[in-house]
Design a protein that fits this description.
The protein is α/β, with parallel strands linked by helices. It is built from 4 helices and 7 strands. The chain has one domain: Rossmann fold, CATH 3.40.50.300. Strands 2-3-4-1-5-6-7 form a 7-stranded mixed β-sheet, with helices on both faces. It starts with a strand and ends with a helix. The protein binds guanosine-5'-diphosphate (GDP) and magnesium ion (MG).
Length: 162
Amino acid sequence: AKPTVAIVGRPNVGKSTIFNRIIGDRVAIVEDKPGITRDRIYGTGEWNGRSFHLIDTGGIEISDDEIVRSIKVQAELAIEEADVIVFMADAKSGLTPADQEVAGILFRSNKPIVLAINKVDNMQREEDVYEFYNLGFGEPVSISGAHGFGIGELLQRVFEEL
Ligand code: GDP
Ligand code: MG
C-alpha cells in the first residue's frame, strides 16, 4: 500500500505551496466530509520511483477565533491518517504560539514527524531556522516553496521514517 504523508502547520506557513510543488500536475481531489474533514486536499506524490499519498491540511479560509480550534482538529485527523507527518513552520514569521500549539498535539502522537521550515529563501534566513530546534523534533529541514529549494531533502527525510 502507498504510504500517506500529511502536511500539518498553522495557516500561512506555505503548506499548500509545498503540496502543489510536490504533486505537480497530479490531480488533487478535494474531499468534503462535512463536519469532520472539511478542508483536506489529497494528492499523489512521487519520490525516487516510490509513490505516496499526500494530504494538505487546512485548505480553507477561517476566521481568527476559529484558527486554533481548526489547527487542532486538522492535526488530530492527520495523526490518525498519516504514516509520516511533515510539521511545517516558517522562517519569515519565526516560531509562534500557534506553532507551539501544533507541536503539543504532534508530540503526543506516536507518528514520525519531520520538521520542515519553509520560506528559507536565501542563506541569510538559515540562521532564523535555529530557534526551531526548541520544538524538540530534531533537525529541521530548510525549504523554500517560493524557489523549490530543499524539497528533495524533505522527501528523503520522510522516506527514512517509513
Ligand atoms: P498555507 O496556509 O500553509 O497553505 O500557506 P500557503 O501555501 O497558502 O502560503 C501562504 C503565503 O506564503 C502565500 O502568500 C505564499 O505565496 C507564501 N509562501 C509560500 N512559500 C513561500 C516561500 O518559500 N517563501 C516566501 N517568501 N513565501 C512563501
Ligand atoms: Mg493552504
